[in-house]
Amino acid sequence: MSAGFSQLKALIIKEFKEAFRDKRAMMVAFSMSLLAPVMIMVMSKTMIKEMVDKPPVYAEFVGAEYAPKLVKDLADENILPLAEAEESDLRIWQERGITITIPETYGQDMIEGKIINVVLNADYSDKPSLAPIRRIKDVVRDHARAIGYKRLIMRGVDVRILQPLNLVEQDRAQPSSNAMMISIMLGLYLLMGAFMSGLSIAIDSSAGERERNVLEMLLCQPVSTTKIVLAKLSCSASISILSIILMLVVTSISIGFVDLSKIGATFSIDLYMFVALLGLLIPICILAAALQLFFSFQAKSFKEAQSTVTMLIMLPAFVPFILMFIDDRPMWLDWLPVAGQSIIMEDLFKGLVINWSAFAFTSVTTVALSAVLVMTLAQKLKSEKVVMALS
Q1: Least confident range of 178-182, 293-297, 308-312
Q2: N or C: which end of the chain has fewer CB within 10 A?
Q3: 0.90 exceeded by the pTM?
Q4: Dist CA 193 CA 190 (whole Å)
Q5: What DSSP letter does each residue of 97-154 carry, written as one string?
Q6: What does the longest C-alpha to C-alpha distance in the chain come to?
């Protein structure tokens, strides 16, 4: 074994010992891995419940006696008078204050064929009220359509003339594509985990060591700055990779507790997806560690490194958010680091064919960018201004 490799090995062991000695940093590093899958499971179950179930909706009916059939249609869809609300739910629905007002002239206007204004009064900016409002509007719309059809039939008109065209929809999406909410959340958490898990380790091994005067002593030894940076990078990136592996394992278990069959979707992390995701995320973990070390060494103190690096590192982690709002994504985004990996992950979750050329190119580019950062940082550490935080 060469002396150079032995030095690098000793430096890596030293970095890992110091990293695992800091229990709080390790808790921060792995907290997202454990909490993110649980959050995905809870949010998915809540969203599926809202999409599938029809919980009771309670509204104040004014003039219900004038339109008994409309009130019956509403009751059939579990939209009930506020007076029937259980005591535990009464306060919530009183605060929402949804009111349906039926005019006194409802019966006469119906006979005369006039347009009847049924007033739905509610706070449309209140998010919990949106689903009940949508359900009430659907029932009133269906009830009005049924009355219109009956009037046409009574006049001897075939109601089919109202629908000269019938759009037959054929969904080509894979069953896994219907689990979009899970794939979007998982993609975001994986990228954030890759960028954030090794953050505290990287800052402590750079700005922290400088404040403890450990870095100065280390640089006095006959070891090249490149090996010092590589050792720190190996430790921080390894923690991020371990965090990602843990997140994938816990997610693959927790997702089994979500009944996706209720929305006709399937989602699972099999061995192929697991390996492909790791192949995409390992270069990102290396790039994140390189960026964290690079900017930490530019800061003058530990606190400045924490605030600056956290803010800067969050920017690439928000790339998937930005991509979500671009409907017609240009092709060159597939080949950019981070953006390309995010797009490939999306295709992977949808069960689409992977663009292996883009996969290889983005991985190589990301690692090459990391290598440039490492070499630049190693060169900078030869300057006293950077080591003593004088610049």
Answers
A1: 178-182
A2: N
A3: no
A4: 5
A5: T-EEE--TTHHHHHHHT-----EEE--TT-HHHHHHHHHHHHHHHHHHHHHHHHHHHH
A6: 100
